[in-house]
Design a protein that fits this description.
By secondary structure, this protein is α/β, with parallel strands linked by helices. It has helices spanning about 20-25, 45-55, 65-80, 95-105, 120-130, 150-160, 180-190, 235, 250-265, 270-285, 285-310, 340-345, 370-385; strands at about 30, 90, 110-115, 135, 160-170, 195-200, 225-230, 245-250, 325-330, 350, 350, 360-365. The longest helix has 25 residues, at about 285-310.
């Protein structure tokens, strides 16, 4: 049994999530429930592998070993039922950085990128930052989350300059785990209009039982030449600081050019400890992940019960995947700067839904933390709302 209940201070560790309150905002006591990293220690085998490598004492130029690449191949086969070849793997320092390079490589300046909102902000911020126009095909959210296939095809039929779809699988922030049928319908359309689909699958391992993640590369092999998969152990095992991720690219022409660009830009220059962390996590992390997912799911269920009792007008359903709860506070008519008020006056930070587009009134809440942290944070949300007379 692994320990997910212990609360460890991350203050003073250069933590993006926790250290900015004093250094940037001059706040002494804020509970961080925003950015998507965990407050759990990674599997002990990962720490041991890093320490073992550090004890060698020489940290010169490093290339990925067969052990690292084989760990990716084994993990993807074991957990996502896809066959990966070494020559189709390009290691990268991060999914967002890889996304930037792919857009620059595959979409000309006069061409466009499609995204489906609400969605992780770099999906639309990254193309825009390099002068690629972004077009939006919002998801249908009621009565259940689904892709608006009719609108998508209509947009593609009317605008031949749309060349890429950036897709979130599973979905951040709504927590949808897409089915094989849903993905096949999507790929039928993208294939018909010769779109490249970049599938961000960084949350692929975080799907709750009895559901199972369906990889975009596992839907139908006939589509794979137009698919680029972005994956990483970083969300799964809380290793974002290790700067290790990868692209899986079956199309050899796209793969070769991407690898060339990644090398030239330094995108493929992985931290020496990143190799060790990935290899250990993907080799020894199965049981840790199973227990971690069960703990996160229990946190999600606790949050549902808490909201039902304390904030019954909030709309929230336990998600199918990720450790991110997507909660609609709009029935309480909270102000646009609700998240800022919670941070500066309530002592708790959630992620403002407005940053994901088409999400006024929503907050994203990180549940990958000890229960004690989640309870204290949510109690502060309620206390702040009471003080502001926002409860009905």
């Amino acid at each position: 049994m692994y320990d997910f209940d212990s609360v460890y201070s991350r203050v003073g560790t250069s933590s993006t999530k926790w250290d900015r309150y004093v250094s940037r905002y001059h706040l002494e006591d804020v509970i961080a429930l925003w950015v998507a990293d965990m407050d759990f220690k990674c599997p002990p085998e990962v720490s041991e592998a890093i320490v073992h490598r550090a004890e060698h004492g020489i940290f010169g130029y490093t290339d990925p070993s067969d052990e690292c690449l084989n760990a990716i191949i084994s993990w993807e086969k074991r957990h996502h039922q896809i066959d990966v070849r070494k020559e189709n793997i390009v290691l990268t320092t991060g999914v967002v950085y890889a996304l930037y390079t792919l857009v620059e490589q595959l979409v000309k300046k006069e061409e466009k990128v499609m995204v489906m909102t609400p969605v992780y902000p770099p999906f639309f911020n990254t193309p825009a930052s390099i002068e690629r126009e972004v077009v939006y095909c919002p998801l249908i959210l009621e009565p259940e989350v689904r892709i608006d296939l009719e609108k998508m095809e209509r947009m593609l039929k009317e605008d031949a300059s749309i060349k890429m779809l950036i897709f979130c699988n599973p979905h951040n922030p709504v927590g949808k785990s897409w089915t094989k049928d849903e993905l096949e319908e999507l790929l039928e359309i993208t294939n018909r209009y010769d779109l490249i689909v970049v599938s961000d699958e960084i949350h692929a391992d975080l799907v709750f039982e009895p559901l199972q993640h369906v990889s975009m590369l596992g839907v139908n092999e006939k589509f794979n030449q137009n698919v680029v998969l972005l994956g990483a152990p970083t969300k799964t095992f809380n290793l974002a600081g290790m700067k290790i991720s990868y692209a899986l690219i079956p199309n050899q022409d796209i793969c070769s050019e991407f690898a060339k660009r990644a090398k030239a830009s330094g995108l493929s220059s992985i931290n020496i400890f990143g190799f060790e962390a990935l290899s250990a996590a993907y080799t020894y992390g199965d049981q840790w992940l199973k227990e971690c997912l069960a703990y996160i799911y229990d946190n999600m269920v606790w949050l549902k019960k808490f909201l039902n009792e304390q904030l019954p007008l909030c709309r929230y359903e336990v998600p199918e995947s990720t450790y991110l709860a997507w909660v609609d506070f709009s029935a309480y008519e909270v102000p646009d700067n609700f998240a800022e008020i919670l941070k500066f006056e309530g002592g708790v930070e959630l992620q403002d839904g407005r940053g994901f587009k088409d999400s006024e009134g929503f907050q994203r809440i990180n549940c990958a933390c000890p229960r004690e942290t989640l309870v204290k944070g949510m109690e502060r949300v309620v206390d702040c709302m009471k003080k502001k007379n926002w409860l009905k």
